[in-house]
Design a protein that fits this description.
Elements: H1 2-12, E1 17-23, E2 31-33, E3 36-42, E4 50-59, E5 65-66, E6 78-80, E7 87-92, E8 98-101, E9 106-110, E10 114-122, E11 130-140, E12 144-154, H2 161-173, E13 184-190, E14 196-202, E15 213-217, E16 223-233, E17 236-245, E18 256-262, E19 267-273
Parallel strand pairs: 1-12
Antiparallel strand pairs: 2-3, 3-4, 4-10, 5-9, 6-11, 7-10, 8-9, 11-12, 13-14, 14-17, 15-18, 16-17, 18-19
Length: 275
């Protein structure tokens, strides 16, 4: 209900930005909006049918934007590529976020400039020469300003393309690491009351892995609430995730939730199969 109200208010604001940006080479022009400026950058070299790109968001001081699962008081970024006939699918990826409490409400997102990697999947045998993509996200201070931007990005070969490719590569390198033997999610189970998922994370007992924080993105039909560490283990931490909603009829197929665990100096992304 809260999220629906926010969407309505955001779409009703007169500050909504709807524009078409044309860029040559592999980066668009910067788009200025209240609280931020943003652009689309692509490395220009598809590999195995996939083109890497990023949404570059430069937030002004005091402004924030959202993670893929921002909580009750936020809207996740989205991308629409229906106007790009050479592109079959697009996926926004996310660096490890922070839990931000504004006093009047808390959400999960970013309060500093952030680059969101994007994977564009091409149709077989198609050659992509331009990207037409519509991006929608919220930029917030005390109120949320909706940003609706349509990028029309021509992928021509220029001297700046090497720099663009390097920036895109850096954005992918900044994503949470894959699970390892030293740092991984070791399963999930219900608590006795059946209203919380208890998730065990194994991580080394070192200063670099102190004070872990867990963020979870549920599958369709599920809604998670707050997350907190409830038990410290010799080789890890147990987190409790409040489950506010789950499907009445469960699918026969495994249902997975994405999990990001952030520590002082490390971040890891894994999945859990919901029990």
């Amino acid at each position: 209900m809260i999220r629906s109200l926010i969407v309505f208010l955001m779409l009703s604001l007169s500050g909504a930005l709807a524009c078409v940006v044309q860029g040559h080479a592999a980066s668009s022009d910067w788009i200025e909006t209240e609280g931020a400026r943003l652009r689309l950058v692509a490395d220009g070299q598809p590999r195995d049918g996939v083109l890497h790109a990023m949404i570059d968001i430069e937030l002004k001081d005091g402004w924030k934007t959202y993670w893929r699962e921002p909580g009750a008081n936020g809207i996740p970024p989205s991308i629409d590529i229906t106007a790009s006939h050479s592109i079959a699918d697009a996926e926004i990826l996310f660096p490890a976020p922070e839990r931000i409490d504004e006093g009047y409400g808390a959400f999960i997102g970013y309060d500093a400039p952030v680059r969101l990697p994007v994977r564009f999947e091409l149709h077989p045998s198609d050659k992509v020469e331009r990207i037409r993509a519509s991006v929608f996200l919220g930029i917030c201070e005390r109120i949320c300003v909706p940003v609706q931007t349509e990028f029309d990005l021509e992928l021509t070969s220029t001297a700046s393309q090497a720099l663009d490719a390097a920036l895109v590569a850096q954005s992918f390198a900044a994503l949470p690491a894959s699970p390892s033997r030293a740092f991984f999610v070791d399963g999930a189970r219900w608590n006795e009351e059946g209203d919380r998922l208890l998730v065990t994370v194994r991580h080394p007992d070192t200063a670099g892995f102190a004070e872990p924080t867990l963020f979870a993105a549920p599958p369709t039909g599920w809604h998670f609430g707050g997350v907190k560490a409830v038990e410290s283990l010799p080789d890890g931490t147990v987190f409790a995730i409040k489950v506010k909603q789950r499907p009445e009829a469960r699918s026969d197929k495994p249902e997975n939730a994405a999990v990001v665990v952030r520590t002082v100096s490390h971040a890891m992304q894994d999945t859990i199969t919901l029990p």
